Amino acid sequence: REQLPQTPATTQTVTLDMVGGLTEVVAELRQIAVSFRHPEAMARWGARRPQGLLMYGPPGTGKTMLSRALANEIGADFREIRTPEILDKWLGGSERNIKQIFRDARRYRVPTLMLFDEFDSIVSYAGVGGDAASQALNAVAGIFKQEMNDLIEENPNVIVVATTNFPHRVDDSLIRSGRFDVKISVPKPDEASRAEIFRKMIQGLIGAHEQPGFTMFADDLNLQALAHASHGMTGADIKEVLRRVQLTKAMQDARTGGNVSPISQDELLASVRELLGPR
Ligand code: ATP
């Protein structure tokens, strides 16, 4: 069989510099990273390093990206715990899974950031309805709270980040108990932030792909106009705008043997409009 040409792996590290907009959030995360990298300074002043972060905001606004970037800034291992690893349809199954995850975490000897995505679906605030399903969910939240308390007392190497699109669904007592000592709102980007996201993503692509003799973007780009046209989009949407243009260009490239013009402002605008759809 013919060997397919290898595409280079793209497991790029994510840094806080790559985040567009969200200036205050990034500043706060940098501060948290310092508290991990300088335990001696924290100890001298009796300052407690935050070990629980709740990030909330609409889908695609960069919560997962920020968590990865924070781990990178701390120099911590990144461990994402996906909801299916936890939720179990059998009675007591989810609680057992949570206990196992935290039992492992108590043994982490290197700084580790644990990310719980879609946190609301794990510890959904099930209200006061007394049915079996909501009682089971509340039990899961109770176990989580207890395990997180124990973990934070025992293992200073761990930082727990939970992200959610629905903060009001997260069991109040879990937040109030003080274990999530930092709550971070991650809103949709405004126009200036969208311009910055476009700029950073395009710079990233240029850095990764341009080389002598290959120009990826035309020099007529107007980030302001792109930001304006992409009203309502998130960072994830902007990434999709670029992904579509990249794919179109690659297809042309494959057809023509590389005879393709760089990505132009018009092509980017067209991709924005296509993704937004008829309004
Ligand atoms: P969800 O709530 O759906 O899990 P999320 O808030 O975790 O979404 P991410 O998965 O972090 O969003 O965002 C998807 C991608 O969009 C990121 O990998 C990143 O490339 C890009 N992105 C989102 N927001 C930004 C931003 N502010 N700056 C740069 N890139 C961004």
From TrEMBL:
Domain of life: Bacteria
Record key words, sorted: ATP-binding, Nucleotide-binding
UniProt-recorded Gene Ontology molecular function terms: ATP binding; ATP hydrolysis activity
AAA+ ATPase domain sequence ranges: 49-190
Family: Belongs to the AAA ATPase family.
Protein name: AAA+ ATPase domain-containing protein
Full-protein interval shown: 212 to 490 of 490
